[in-house]
Amino acid sequence: MQFTAKQISEFLNGTIEGDENVKVGELSKIENGTVGSLSFLSNPKYESYLYTTSASVVIVSKDFVATQPFTSTLVRVQDPYSAFSVLLEKYNEALNFDGGKSGIDEPSFIHPTAKIGKNVFIGAFCSIEENVVIGDNTKIYTQIYIGKDSVIGANATIFPGVKIYNRTQIGDRVTIHSNAVIGSDGFGFAPQKDGTYNKIAQIGNVVIEDDVEIGANTTIDRATMGSTFIRKGAKLDNLIQIAHNVDVGAHAVVAAQTGISGSTRLGDNSVIGGQVGIAGHLNLGKGTQIGAQAGINFDTEENKQWHGSPAQPLKEWMRATVIFKKLPEVDKRIRDLEAKIAQLTAVIEQISTTQK
Q1: pTM of the entire structure?
Q2: Is 111 a catalytic residue?
Q3: What residues contact 189, with CB distance under 8 A and at least 6 apart?
C-alpha cells in the first residue's frame, strides 16, 4: 500500500515542502532511508542524515530550518516524533490485520459458564475457565490460560503464551505480550523459629485498567489481600517484576528488568529506567523520574529526578559522578604527596639528629 506526501500531510494536519505527489510504501529510520520510504527527524543530532538520506518523505517540525540542500519532500508538523508514532501504529495495524478474524480455533477448552463477547477470536490450545468474561473484539491468541472468574474487557489483545490467574480484572484496549504471567503468587513467607518458612496465602488479585500495555515475560503478582493495581494507560516493558499489592500509577512508564517490591505505590506519570530496583512499602510521588540501574529505598517527592544506587537527586548524582571519575587521579596525587611528606620527614629527622 502506498500513500502520497499530500495524503500523509492531510492525515497529520501538516504542511508540505516539496513534491506533494511523491509516493511512499514503507517506513524507515532517516539514516537508512531509501527511495519510496517515509522517515522523520525530531532529534537534532540526526539532522546531518537529512542531507544524505534517500527517503522520499521526511516528517520534520514546523520550525525546522535546513542548513544544507536536501532531496526529500518534507511534511512539517507540530511534533515529528508523535506524528511518526501515529503512522507506526497505523502501519503495524496494517501488517497485523487479519481481516476481522473471529471465532474459536480447535482444539481449545472453553468452560460452559464462560461468556464470550462479539467478534472475539480465541486461538488454538487456549483454556478459558469457569465464569470468565471476555469483551467484544478481543483477541486471545494461541496457548493462553485464563483462570476462573477473570474478566477481560473489549478490544484487548493477548499474545501467545500468556497466563492469567483466577479473578484477574483486565480493562478495555489492554495489550499483553507473549509469556507474561498475571496474578501469580505474591512472594510472602513467614519465618519460623526452626529456620524454615511457612507460605502466606495470597488471596487477592490483579486489576489492570484500560489502555495498559504489558511487555513479554513480565510478571505481576496478585495481592496478599486486596489488589495489585496497574492503572489506566501505564506502559510496562519486557522482563519486569511487579510484586504483591504494588500500585502502578496512571500513565507510568517502566523500562525492562525493573523490580518493584511489595506494597509500593508508583505515582501517576512516573518514568522508571531499566534495571531499577525499588524497595517495598514506599510512596513514589507523581512524576517521579528514576535513571537506569538506580536503587530506591525511600519515599520520593513529586516531579523529582533520581539517579545512582543508592539513589541521589540528579544534580548531586552528577556532581558525585564527576568526582568518582577523578578518583584514580586523586588517589595518585595523594600517594605522591604521602611520598613527598615521607621524604621531608626523613630530611627533618636527619637535620634534627645532626644538630643534637
Answers
A1: 0.79
A2: no
A3: 197, 198, 199, 200
